[in-house]
Description:
rod-shaped, about 80% helix, about 80 residues, mainly alpha, 3 helices, single chain
Amino acid sequence: xxxxxxxxxxxxxxxxxxxxxxxxxxxxxxxxxxxxxxxxxxxxxxxxxxxxxxxxxxxxxxxxxxxxxxxxxxxxx
Length: 77
């Protein structure tokens, strides 16, 4: 249990730091573990946060790329 809580805490910290891939890798370590109902609930919540954060980060990157391309298209060649 202590090990599971340590992984969950580490993943939570990576989420706060917006290090989505690292958080997901940590959470994946728990895939084959026997979890308590509370740990399972926390795991699901953290996975959802990673997915939501990664989606938002992706949207920001896409938006920045679109803006770059639009600005580039305004520049005379």
